[in-house]
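Could you join me in thinking about how sequence relates to backbone shape in a protein? To get us started, please write out a protein record for me. Would you write everything just below, so we can both look at the same thing?
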Amino acid sequence: MPMLDRQDNVFVLDLGDGENRFHPDWLASVGAALDEVEKAEGPRALVTAATGKFYSNGLDLEWLFANADRYQDYVVSVHALFARVLSLPVITVAALQGHTFAAGAMFSLAHDFRVMRADRGYWCLPEADIDIPFTPGMAALIQARLAPQAAHRAMVTAHRYGGADAAAVGIVDQAVAEDAVRSTAVELAQSQVNKAGDTLGTIKARMYAPVLTTLRDATNFG
């Protein structure tokens, strides 16, 4: 399960060492960690990272198929996580040391910055290949955080981007060696800790107001 640590003024949330799919318990654990980051005072920033082959493989489809009657509540909770990270009143950096797929890729886009491993691992939105359309909220998030051409190719073709390719089109901000992913993300976050606070939260909320409205609309999830 996700674990929150603090290095000076940078909170580091390790998402886990498996596929880090969005099981309801995982979502609750991440939410509790974000509560702790939000209620802290003074300079601070947040890095999300993971251990192992995956950053996140996205929705927990196995759980979802077994709990189809809870589909709406589940998607609403995923949208809520995206909205919360997108508007968090601290600078956020995703350290992508492994595969970052589907809703996991969308989760990374909700962060302010992304650092990805250069030599192995893929960032991918596979929905066109697995026959699952993006919800309106998901589409809004992706299109707000990527340049139009990059969003189009990623969403329509399900292209798998390696670190260098992802950096070239602005999906990630930096592609670095495997052993430098987390430290680079922490260093970037540390340089921005003084931005934390209500003003930053207001800037993000106004910058992404249409996306946040769509993500928070519990009737618009299909």
Notes: The chain has a mean pLDDT of 97. The longest strand covers residues 91-96.
